[in-house]
Amino acid sequence: MRTFYSQIEKETQDLLDSLKINELPIPVIEVAKRTGATVTAFDLGDEISGIVQIKNGKASIGYNPNESKVRQRFTVAHELGHFMASKSNDKDRIYLDNGNYFVPTKFRTTNIKLSEQDFKEEQEANAFAAALLMPIRFVQREIKNYNGFDLSDSSMINELAKKFDVSTQAMSYRIFTLAENDQI
């Protein structure tokens, strides 16, 4: 696993430990608020899922209430990932993301070419969201409850997605990534 992914896994685990969160689903809005962020539902239009403004070391996270609950949760976790990463560089920033976090729509334009740094920041925010909402130790624990977990069994993936309160797509990708890195 790449270094920044390993670091993100550790950071999210440390965060959950410090907040004494041990149950599913992870209360992502509570987590964000306990890190000092404000979180607000905000109608961002059809194309925008979330936004975070980071100013003077504080974050204001907005998420689109018109999207599904699991999408809202992932969006808040993703934006929180941007905030947590910004703490190390102490820069004021605004991240405006559409539904495809790998190609963010910044300032409502789809004609933007992501710099290598922008692409890396989006990958890190996605990894943070996945690690926060689906922590390794919880995924490992839940998979052990099955008598022979089968990644190709969609009913198992659906059950896990419900337990973690994430989309089936996010759960599938998380399990696949962890399996690929011999972590489950």
Helix and strand sequence: HHEEEHEHHHH
Provide the low-confidence segments as ranges. 100-111
> In order across it, which strands form the biggest sheet?
1-3-2-4
Number of strands: 4
Beta strand %? 5-15%
The termini sit apart by 13 Å
Mean pLDDT: 85
Helix content: 40-55%
Quickly give the structural class. alpha+beta
Sheet bearing the most strands, described? Answer: 4 strands, mixed
The count of helical stretches stands at 7
From the alpha-carbon coordinates, what is the Rg to the nearest angstrom? 16 Å
What does this 3D model show about the protein?
The chain has 184 residues and is α+β, with helices and mostly antiparallel strands. 50% of the residues lie in helices and 13% in strands. It has helices at residues 3-18, 28-34, 69-86, 116-133, 136-144, 154-164, 168-180, and strands at 38-41, 48-55, 58-63, 93-98. It has a 4-stranded mixed beta sheet with strand order 1-3-2-4, with helices on one face. Strand 2 (48-55) and strand 3 form a beta hairpin.
Structural features:
single chain; 184 residues; alpha+beta; 4-stranded mixed beta sheet; 4 strands
Annotate the secondary structure layout.
Blueprint lengths: L2 H16 L9 H7 L3 E4 L6 E8 L2 E6 L5 H18 L6 E6 L17 H18 L2 H9 L9 H11 L3 H13 L4
Parallel strand pairs: 1-3
Antiparallel strand pairs: 2-3, 2-4
Short description:
With 184 residues, the chain is α+β, with helices and mostly antiparallel strands. Helices cover 50% and strands 13% of the residues.
